[in-house]
Amino acid sequence: MEVITKICTKCGKPKPLDDYWNHPNGKYGKRPRCKDCVRKENAEFEKTYLPKRTEKNSEWYDKNKEAVKEGRKVSGWRWEYKPENKRRHNLKARYGISSDQYDALLASQNGNCAICGYDINDGRRAAVDHSHVTGEVRGIVHMRCNSAIGIFKDSPEICRKAAAYLEKSFG
C-alpha cells in the first residue's frame, strides 16, 4: 500500500500524513504545516511574547493561585468580571452613555418601553434603541420592539404601512 505524503507549507518537505495534525477543512483532513514546524512556531512565540517566569511573579502567583483560578479580583488586576462591569462597559462602548444616563432615560419613560409602552422589567430583555445613522440614543425598548423597527429599517413610512395593513385586515 502506498503511503500518502503531503508537502508542509512552512518547511516545504514532503512528509507522511501522520506528521500532520487533523483539521476538518484541510487537504486530506490535515493541517497545512507539519507538527515539527508548528512546534517550532509555538516555541518561538512563547520565547518572544509570553512573559518570563521570574522569582517575583512566581511568588505573586503562588500567593494568589486560588484567586486567579476562580477569576476573582486580586491586587494589581485592572478588571474583575462582574455582570454590572460588563453592562457599564458595553453601554459606554456601544452607545456612549453611562449606567446613570441609562437609568435616567428609563426613569423618564416611567420604566416602560418607548415603543409599546409596557413595563421594561416584565421579564423581557431590554435594548438601547439608537439611530444607526447618527448614533443618537432614542430610548430604552424591549428586544422584540427593537427587532421589529430594525426589520422595518427604522422607516416611519414602512411602519405606517404595516399599521394600515393591520387595521384593514383585523380592524
Describe the structure.
- With 171 residues, the protein is mainly α.
- It has two domains: 5-49, 2-Layer Sandwich (Wheat Germ Agglutinin (Isolectin 2), domain 1), CATH 3.30.60; 83-170, His-Me finger endonuclease fold (3-Layer(aba) Sandwich), CATH 3.40.1800.
- It is 46% helix and 10% strand.
- The chain contains six helices and four strands.
- The chain has helices at 35-49, 55-70, 83-95, 99-108, 143-151, 156-170, and strands at residues 5-7, 14-16, 126-130, 137-142.
- It has a two-stranded antiparallel ribbon with strand order 1-2. Strands 3-4 form a two-stranded antiparallel sheet.
- Strand 3 (126-130) and strand 4 form a beta hairpin.
- It is flat.
- The model has no long low-confidence stretch (mean pLDDT 86).
Question: Main attributes?
Answer:
single chain, 171 residues, mainly alpha, Wheat Germ Agglutinin (Isolectin 2), domain 1, His-Me finger endonuclease fold, 2 domains, two-stranded antiparallel ribbon, two-stranded antiparallel sheet, 6 helices, 10% strand, flat
